[in-house]
Amino acid sequence: MPEFQPETVARRSLLRKAAGVGAGVVLGGLAGAMVAAPPARAAGMQAGWRYCVRCAGLFWPLGNKGCPAGGPHAAAGWTFQLPIDGYRLPNQPEWRCCMNCNALHYDGYPDPDGRCSTGIEHKRTGVDSNFALPANVGEPAGHQANWRFCLRSGAPDPGCFMLFFDGYPNFKGICPAGPGGHLAVGWNFAIPVYSYAT
Ligand SMILES: [Zn+2]
Ligand SMILES: [Zn+2]
Ligand SMILES: [Zn+2]
Questions:
Q1: Which InterPro entries does this chain map to (predicted)?
Q2: Are the C-beta atoms of residues 153 and 195 closer than 8 Å to each other?
Q3: Contact of 189 with 148, CB cutoff 8 Å
Q4: Which terminal residue of the chain, N or C, has fewer Cβ atoms less than 10 Å from its own Cβ?
Q5: Between the ranges 24-33, 34-43, 119-128, where is the mean pLDDT highest?
Q6: How far, in Å, from the CA of 63 to the mean position of ligand 3?
Q7: Conformational region of residue 94, where left means phi above 0, alpha means psi within -120 to 50, and beta covers everything else
């Protein structure tokens, strides 16, 4: 099974085209949407990110806390791995983990950093990995699409800027920025899958 081959590149701004995307590029070796066994861990990826069935966000389970629905996040389904500092597919960097709510959120604006369930804004972790999410690439093998940026505006607060799964027509999670669940804006992100657990 081919391993993911993320690039290690310097920080770059917004969406870019990775070299080699197109004809002849083999995107992983995973069959459809199911993964029989975890793919080998690749350098430049952080595995272990989970979907929360309560808030619909993507969260880091270590020190799990700060779900917008209250208490800790509740994991189910896929375990995901996030590219760090670039990827072989077109991507958007500047996605970060919040040390207060454990949620992946977009931190590419100068200010603010998005409404956090535990305070006014999200706050980066000390580790401060810069995650680059494949953007507008469809759903390549080994990835799950329909992850979106939330810009639910709850004036005077900013949107929550969280990444959330928008694949369910009738469930948009819980948004810290306002009622009605998360509100998708912008690109459609495809998140690399690491393994599946029931
Ligand atoms: Zn949650
Ligand atoms: Zn937060
Ligand atoms: Zn939201």
A1: TAT_signal
A2: no
A3: yes
A4: C
A5: 119-128
A6: 21
A7: left
Break the chain into its structural domains and give their ranges. 46-197
pLDDT in the model for residue 126:
67
Copy the structure tokens of residue 157: 């607060």
CA distance 7 to 76: 29
Q: What does the angle CA 146 – CA 148 – CA 153 come to, to the nearest 5 degrees?
A: 145
**C-alpha of residue 78 to centroid of ligand 1, in Å:** 15
Instruction: Say how many Å lie between the CA of residue 40 and the centre of ligand 3.
Output: 32
Centre of ligand 3 to C-alpha 115, Å, is: 8
Taking the CA of 69 as reference, the closest ligand is 1
Higher pLDDT pick, 17 / 105: 105
What amino acid occupies position 125? T
Q: How far is the CA of 76 from the centre of ligand 1 (A)?
A: 11
- The fraction of the chain above a pLDDT of 90, given in percent, is 65
pTM exceeding the 0.85 threshold for the entire prediction: no
Place of tokens 């700060």: 66
Centroid of ligand 1 to alpha carbon of 170 (angstroms):
17
Look-up of token digits 């690439």: 137
User: How far is the centre of ligand 3, averaged over its atoms, from the C-alpha of 23 (Å)?
Assistant: 36
Token reading at 21: 């995307």
Contact 113, 101 (CB under 8 A): no
Evaluate whether 62 touches 176 at the Cβ level (below 8 Å).
no
Instruction: Classify residue 178 as left (phi > 0), alpha (psi -120 to 50) or beta.
Output: left
